[in-house]
Amino acid sequence: MVGDPSPVWPLATAPKAPTAFGSFGQPRPSMKDKKRTHLGVDLDSDYMAPVYAMESGTLTVSQGWDGPETRGLWLETPSGLAILYGAVAPGTFPKLPYEVSKGQKIANIGRYPKGSTMLHLETWIRPVGIPRPEWPWGAPRPANAMDPAEYLSRVAGYPGGQSQSGQSDADDGDVQGGGGTYGTGDAPWATVAIVGLGLYLIFGSKGKRTLVW
User: Nearest-CA neighbor of 69 among 47, 89, 92?
Assistant: First the structure.
């Protein structure tokens, strides 16, 4: 398996799936008026929200992204994975290269020219050249590009992902990852309680869910 078997969530919010338009493999327009294919997933986030290292490794390269308020940041990991954090704010990450630990705060979310804010996340099997390959619409997927959804599914609490629990809540973002405790055992009990209450209210006493090299 490439990548940490139990990465942490890259944001301070609860794990959630990307929107359909922000998913891997979606057709996108490009600056050359030609369709390209989305190589990552987009996760909604607020401007300047903290971003965390999903696993331990080295922050190696910062690259241009979209406009003056966003950069792309590469994390090279010993597990054989290269993670691209897109649309982080310039000046919010350390001087590169920089060793980081799993769950450590590495940057903050930037802002696109039209004002939208999100984390664009890509996962690649090393080695990957910088800049990384594009994926023209209709062409085969680059050989070492992974669908980030598979990697994200390993995070505790990810919708439809692995059943894991026990992550620590993020405090000030310096050393802890952004997932919090999202054990999959919590939701069923809440569902039972809500359903039970609803039945009681309805029926009452009647008894009637470069690396990157």
Answer: 89
Dist CA 204 CA 67 (whole Å): 59
Q: What are the tokens at 175?
A: 């050393």
Give me the number of domains the chain comprises.
1
What CATH number is attached to the domain comprising 60? 2.70.70.10
Summarize pLDDT for 24-79 with one digit per residue, the tens.
Answer: 999 887 655 568 899 999 999 999 999 999 999 999 999 999 999 999 999 999 99
d(CA 79, CA 69): 31
How far apart CA 43 and CA 78 sit, in angstroms, is 25
Which residue is it, tokens 């057709």? 27
Q: Alpha-carbon distance 177 to 168, whole Å?
A: 7
H or E stretch covering 200: helix 186-203
Note down the domain range covering 142.
1-213
Average pLDDT over residues 145-149: 96
Contact in structure between 170 and 49 (CB atoms under 8 Å)? no
Query: pTM (2 decimals)?
Result: 0.75
State how far the alpha carbon of 102 is from the alpha carbons of 4, 60, 105, 158, in Å: 10, 15, 9, 18
3-state secondary structure 4-45: CCCCCCCECCCCCCCCCCCCCCCEECCCCCCCEECCCEEEEC
From the number of C-beta atoms within 10 Å of its C-beta (0-12, 13-18, 19+), residue 133 rates as middle
